[in-house]
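Tokens in:
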């Protein structure tokens, strides 16, 4: 059961993920969370550094889809200026949005990585549905109400993973 919460990789930020290395490992598509993964949950627009990372992804010929549990207005306002496909109200960790994203990208599960900042939504959803997963440290130290509840549960899960020797990184 704990295996489902174990990300394939853990990094400090999205900027520690090299699109070139992902491509070299056979990845052709990225499903990424939005809030506290790409930008702070209350930041409306992409930062210049994030725009450069998006360019690197596209330069590698990779596809990207934002899959978020947030509402349409939030996700659309962020995604549309950059022509990035998105799925809102995704109901992660349920699988429907992940399956739709892969189908829309016309890729196979083993060609796609799921990137996010939450064990209970992004990592669990990605793992349950057969994807490679990367957990990033949340961009902001503050969260919305429901995410704060998730973070309390996640701390317990992380403590269990550490106690059982299943993770080797430092938070």
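Residues out:
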């Amino acid at each position: 059961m704990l295996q489902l919460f174990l990300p394939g990789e853990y990094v400090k930020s999205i900027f520690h993920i090299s699109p070139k290395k992902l491509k070299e490992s056979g990845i052709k598509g990225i499903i990424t969370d939005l809030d506290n993964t790409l930008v702070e949950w209350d930041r409306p627009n992409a930062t210049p550094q994030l725009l450069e990372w998006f360019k690197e992804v596209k330069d590698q010929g990779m596809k990207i889809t934002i899959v978020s549990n947030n509402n349409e207005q939030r996700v659309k306002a962020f995604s549309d200026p950059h022509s990035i496909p998105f799925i809102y109200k995704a109901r992660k960790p349920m699988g429907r949005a992940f399956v739709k994203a892969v189908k829309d990208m016309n890729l196979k599960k083993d060609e796609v990585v799921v990137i996010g900042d939450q064990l209970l939504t992004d990592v669990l959803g990605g793992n349950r549905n057969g994807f490679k997963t990367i957990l990033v440290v949340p961009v902001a130290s503050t969260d919305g109400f429901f995410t704060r509840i998730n973070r309390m549960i996640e701390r317990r899960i992380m403590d269990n993973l550490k106690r059982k020797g299943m993770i080797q990184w430092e938070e």
